[in-house]
Amino acid sequence: MKAITQDTYGQADVLQFKDIDMPVAGPDEVLIRIRAAAIDAGTWHLMTGEPYLLRLGFGLKRPKVPVRGREMAGTIEAAGANVTDFKPGDDVVGTATNGTFAEYVTATTARLAPKPASLSFEQAAAIPISGITAVQAVRDTAKIQAGQKVLVIGAAGGVGTYIVQLAKAFGAEVTGVCSTAKTELVQSIGADHVIDYTSQQIPAGRYDVVFDIAGNRKLTEVRRALTPKGMLVLVGGENGGIWLGGMERVLGATLLSPFVSHRLRNVLAIERRKDLEFLIGMIEDGKVKPVIGRTCGLAEVPGTIKDLQAGSARGKTVVII
To answer: PROSITE patterns under this entry (predicted)?
Structure first.
């Protein structure tokens, strides 16, 4: 089968489009014919092996799993002997640990959900990682309530577009922060206000909750936007050092939180079927929609990742397979 693989860490030029052996489902797994996959921030981190801390779990000198990609939508081709909740022919959406930039993948069913007929494979593939992260940030960590004023920094990205929509669905007044070229997109998904960070300042002392997805501002700068008892929720971060990545800010926030009036929290998402099904339900009810900024073919993935590194992403980028 065709797949995007790598045998060493590095930039996008380490990715190879080539033929590899098809995986075989174990007794507790299903074999899925992938129809669409999506690119998330983790794709870049696993490609480069940065921050170095992640290599402890994913391979010190080279990736343990050579195929990139983790989220997908497709059709079950075969089911292991112990699988009872899905069968061949079922369309599913979810994540896998052994690489989804490929024609086939194996997965455990705990991270899968049925794909609604109302969603295309491309739309479904854009849901799992960014969507689950947003659900756990908005519903579980911040516990957004109606009437709260919410700021989303990085509102036009994969996670940001879901956070904007979920916060609105929960009744908040939402302000999105993005660049000039993305303001129209953020408005189109329901933001009450949009701040163009290239020409506007974030108001001080206004927001009950700030979600910082971009990760390129100091904690003191972001906290300035909060009300005295407000909450800052850190969702990832791309501008840390090569050893810890965005974890420096997370650790700093954790250490600082007991000594300030603001509540400083971070989100380390756990991929759970119930959260995936919750978000799919919100989508079917018309309260949230996947935002796809770009599609590409499997062979185009290396070049597409280069473009994403330049900061051009709007919503999710989906790979059609």
So the answer is: QOR_ZETA_CRYSTAL (PS01162)
